[in-house]
Write a structure and sequence with these properties.
By secondary structure, the protein is mainly β. It has two domains: 244 residues, Sandwich (Immunoglobulin-like); 234 residues, Sandwich (Immunoglobulin-like), CATH 2.60.40. Helices cover 12% and strands 42% of the residues. The chain contains nine helices and 25 strands. The strands form five sheets. Strands 4, 6, 7, 8, 10, 11, 12 and 25 form an eight-stranded mixed β-sheet that branches. A six-stranded mixed β-sheet has the order 1-18-17-22-24-15. It has a five-stranded mixed β-sheet with strand order 13-14-16-19-23, with helices on one face. The radius of gyration is 31 Å and the shape is elongated.
C-alpha cells in the first residue's frame, strides 16, 4: 500500500558534472595519440574485456575495459575517486575520414511521475518518466584541421586504440532500480565521419552514437551507518517476573546473498507461568518518494508529490511445540535472497514476488527522489498461563542446571549444556535485564520484540571488496590456460593461417594526429547546493 509522506525542497537542472565532491578531473592530457603498431600490442592491453559498440561499412568500434562493473569503495590511501580506464579500439576495414570522436560517461536518474487521478502503479502506462542528469564526464579527440585534402582525419586500413580515463567520485549513487525510479550509467561513443573519403567537400558528415551500459556498485555504506550497523543489536528484558530473554542480531551490514545471524535465549523465572508459542523474523523494506521540489506549479495539481511503499518479508518462523520451559536457546542464520515470495493480500492462495533492493545512503537520499531503508523485527510470542498441565510438570531444580540449543527444527544439542561461557552469559542477562513496562490491561498473549536497522548492499559488493588481480596474475592465468591446449605445435596449419588473415592487424602508418579535449560543465543546482 502506497501512503503519502512529506518531502524536502531542491531544484533540478539539465547540467551535468561530478556531484558532491567536485574532484579535480585530472585527464590524461599528455598528447594522447592513438596507438598503432603490430597486432600483438593491442591484445596486450592490460585487463582486456572487449565490448563491441557499433559497426559501419568502413570501421568497427569497441571498448576494451577491465569489466562493465565499477566498484566504488574507500581505500587506505584516502582516495575519493575510482578510475575507469580503458581503450577505444577502432578497426578500419576500408579507408575512412573521421573528424571527431567523443566518449561520454553519463549517469541519469529516471524520475517517475504518478498521476493523482489514479492509484499509484509503477507498471501503469499513464506513469510519466523524466531523465535527470546526475553525473557526466567526457573525453573528445578532434583532428587538427588544415588546408590539405588528405590530412590528419584520414584513417587507412588498420586498427587504432585510444586510451582514456574517467574519475568517478566514490559517493555517486550506484546503479539501482525500485518502484519509484532508477539510476543508470553508460559510456556513449559518438563518431563524426564522412562515408566517402574522396568527396570530402561534397558529402556531409555522418554522426553515429551508441551507448554501453556500465554498472556502478557501492561497496561501503555511510560512515555514520557503519558505526550504527556494524555492531550487534541487543535486547534484554524481564517479562512479568516469569522469564528473562535475550535477542541479538549480528552482521547488520550484509550483501544480498549473505546471511543475517540471530541469537535468542530464554531463561525461566517461573517455568510454570508461561508458554512460548513461536519466534518470527521479519524484514521491512520501506521506499519513500518525494518530488515536491521537482514539480512546477502546474504539475503539483497533476502528480503525487509524496508517496511511500512498505514491504514486509517473513524471513524466519519457528513454531514452538513443546511445554518444557527450561533454559532455551536458538541460534540460526537467515539468508537474504534477491527475490522473496509472500502471500497475496487479495488472494491468500497465491503468492507474489518481492524484490529486495539495496539500502540507499545519505548522498543517494539527497540526490535521488527516493530513499530505501531496511529494518529487522524479531518477535517472541509468549503467553501467560495460570495453571500448569499435569503432564508437563518438571523439577525446577533440574531446569537451573540444564541448557538446550534449539535450531529451526527444535533439535536439542546436549553437548552445549552448562558451559562456563553460557553460565556467565546467564548471569549477565539476569543482572542487566529490566522489567518490561506494560499497560494496566495486560493481555495474556504478547510479543517480545527487537527492532534494528540494517544496511543491505548489492550482492556484487562482495566481489568489489576482494583485492583486484594484478597484471602479473592475469598473465599467469593466461599462460596456464594455454598449457591445456589440445594440440600444442609450433607449425601453423592452413586453418591457423586463415584465422590470422581474418584478424584485424595494426599497421605502421602514422595515425591521425588527434588532440584530447576534456569537457566540463556546472553541476545541477540541487547537487551543487548540498
Amino acid at each position: 500500500m502506497l501512503n503519502q509522506f512529506l518531502g524536502k525542497q531542491s531544484n533540478s537542472s539539465s547540467a551535468n558534472v561530478s556531484p558532491l565532491l567536485n574532484p579535480s578531473l585530472s585527464a590524461i592530457n599528455s598528447n594522447l595519440s592513438p596507438v598503432s603498431s603490430t597486432g600483438s600490442e593491442i591484445d596486450q592491453i592490460p585487463g582486456g574485456s572487449e565490448f563491441p559498440i557499433l559497426t559501419t561499412s568502413k570501421f568497427t568500434l569497441s571498448l576494451k575495459l577491465l569489466d562493465k562493473i565499477l566498484y566504488l569503495r574507500s581505500d587506505d590511501s584516502g582516495s575519493t575517486v575510482t578510475p575507469l580506464r580503458g581503450y577505444l579500439c577502432i578497426y578500419v576495414k576500408k579507408p575512412a575520414r573521421i573528424s571527431h570522436i567523443r566518449l561520454q560517461f553519463e549517469g541519469l536518474l529516471n524520475v517517475k511521475y504518478f498521476p493523482q487521478y489514479m492509484a499509484p502503479d509503477p507498471n501503469s502506462l499513464f506513469v510519466a518518466n523524466k531523465p535527470v542528469p546526475v553525473f557526466s564526464q567526457s573525453r573528445s579527440w578532434q583532428y587538427k584541421q588544415n588546408d590539405k585534402v588528405l590530412d590528419t582525419d584520414y584513417f587507412p586500413k588498420g586498427s587504432f586504440a585510444y586510451p582514456f580515463q574517467f574519475l568517478i567520485p566514490n559517493n555517486v549513487p550506484e546503479t539501482m532500480s525500485n518502484v519509484f525510479g532508477s539510476t543508470a550509467y553508460s559510456i556513449t561513443v559518438t563518431v563524426n565521419y564522412i562515408p566517402n573519403s574522396f568527396t570530402k567537400s561534397l558529402i556531409p558528415q555522418t554522426k553515429v552514437t551508441q551507448p554501453l551500459p556500465i554498472q556502478l556498485v557501492q561497496c561501503d555504506s555511510d560512515s555514520c551507518a557503519v558505526s550504527t550497523t556494524s555492531s550487534d543489536a541487543l535486547s534484554l528484558g524481564r517479562w512479568r517476573n516469569l522469564l528473562y530473554y535475550k535477542i541479538a542480531v549480528s552482521n547488520r551490514q550484509v550483501a544480498i546473498g549473505g546471511s543475517l545471524k540471530f541469537y535468542i535465549k530464554v531463561l525461566p523465572i517461573d517455568p510454570t507461568g508461561y508458554k512460548l508459542n513461536s519466534i518470527k523474523v521479519y524484514l521491512d523494506q520501506v521506499t519513500e518518494y518525494h518530488i515536491a521540489d521537482r514539480l512546477t506549479e502546474e504539475e503539483k495539481s497533476m502528480y503525487h508529490s509524496n508517496l511511500a511503499n512498505t514491504e514486509r518479508i517473513l524471513l524466519e518462523e519457528i513454531n514452538i511445540d513443546f511445554l518444557e520451559n527450561g533454559i532455551q536457546c536458538w541460534e540460526f542464520d537467515t539468508p537474504l535472497r534477491k527475490v522473496h515470495k509472500k502471500h497475496n493480500v487479495k488472494d491468500k492462495n497465491s503468492k507474489r514476488e518481492v524484490v529486495l533492493v539495496p539500502t540507499t545512503n545519505q548522498v543517494e537520499n539527497r540526490v535521488c527522489h527516493f530513499s530505501v531503508t531496511h529494518k529487522i523485527k524479531v518477535s517472541i510470542s509468549v503467553e501467560e498461563i495460570s495453571e500448569l498441565d499435569d503432564n508437563s510438570s518438571i523439577d525446577i531444580s533440574d531446569l537451573v542446571s540444564s541448557f538446550s540449543m534449539r535450531t529451526r527444527s527444535q533439535s536439542i544439542d546436549k553437548t552445549l549444556s552448562n558451559t562456563r561461557a553460557e553460565k556467565a552469559d546467564n548471569v549477565m542477562i539476569k543482572q542487566l535485564a529490566k522489567l518490561l513496562l506494560e499497560p494496566e490491561t495486560k493481555k495474556s498473549k504478547v510479543e517480545l520484540i527487537l527492532e534494528a536497522e540494517v544496511a543491505i548492499l548489492k550482492g556484487e559488493s562482495v566481489d568489489g571488496k576482494m583485492p583486484p588481480p594484478t597484471y602479473w596474475d592475469a598473465q599467469q592465468q593466461k599462460q596456464k590456460a594455454s598449457d591445456f591446449a589440445v594440440v600444442p605445435s609450433k607449425v601453423f596449419s592452413l586453418l591457423d593461417a586463415k584465422k590470422l588473415r581474418q584478424r584485424p592487424q595494426l599497421n605502421f602508418i602514422v595515425p591521425p594526429a588527434y588532440e584530447e579535449i576534456e569537457e566540463e560543465s556546472e553541476p545541477p543546482p540541487y547537487i551543487s547546493n548540498m
